[in-house]
Amino acid sequence: DAEITQSPRHKITETGRQVTLACHQTWNHNNMFWYRQDLGHGLRLIHYSYGVQDTNKGEVSDGYSVSRSNTEDLPLTLESAASSQTSVYFCATRTGDEQYFGPGTRLTVT
Amino acid sequence: AQKITQTQPGMFVQEKEAVTLDCTYDTSDQSYGLFWYKQPSSGEMIFLIYQGSYDEQNATEGRYSLNFQKARKSANLVISASQLGDSAMYFCAMREVDNYGQNFVFGPGTRLSVLP
Questions:
Q1: Which of A17, B13, B48, B72 lies in the 20 to 30 Å Cα band around B34?
Q2: How many beta carbons lie within 10 A of that of residue B29, not counting itself?
Q3: For residues B31 and B97, what is the distance between their CA atoms, to the nearest angstrom?
Q4: Helix, coil or strand: residue B84
Q5: Do residues B24 and B5 lie in contact, with contact meaning Cβ atoms separated by under 8 Å?
Q6: What is the pLDDT of residues A79-92, one digit of tens each?
Q7: Is B106 in contact with A35 (Cβ distance < 8 A)?
Q8: What is the C-alpha separation between B23 and B33, in angstroms, rounded?
Q9: Closest A-chain CA to B8
């Protein structure tokens, strides 16, 4: 079955380190998104992509970057991790009006 | 400004009763979509129901229905015959259009607890 996976599922890192969270989908969807989820805020959009070589900033993009070199993957990079980036990160794809979420990555920055 | 408002941080409902989770939204777009997602304690996000801004009928999916009142900009989720497995966080979301296409905005969520 087609799916969307995220790795790692849990990550602990130190302040100042570069961290990359992987997102891989097998649906061949053009639209991919990264969200972070924090208590009281629901999900907030970090970056999104509508296709290969296309990337766009979302509501909370500062400190994050993405790249889209193929349809299947949209890795999210924290250039210099900060404690404020401790969160649960969800990758998602969309086709039509339905959005499909990955299982999430819990990131802790100490 | 908050584009999606969910005024109920937490709700309780007795098993087998119906419950309404509130959602109001703010947009100047004529074409938009409204969604509800369920997030159980295991953490995954589960799509429940969708309502398009031009849909005249309220959306229904099994025990879920969306009470869409366009003039009031509200899109409340109604769960009929609540079950213990309905205990979860519920998020209202809106698809809106920007210069590049469409994006999703989520509300802060409502935690529903179903009591036996």
A1: B13
A2: 13
A3: 8
A4: helix
A5: yes
A6: 999 999 999 999 99
A7: yes
A8: 13
A9: A40
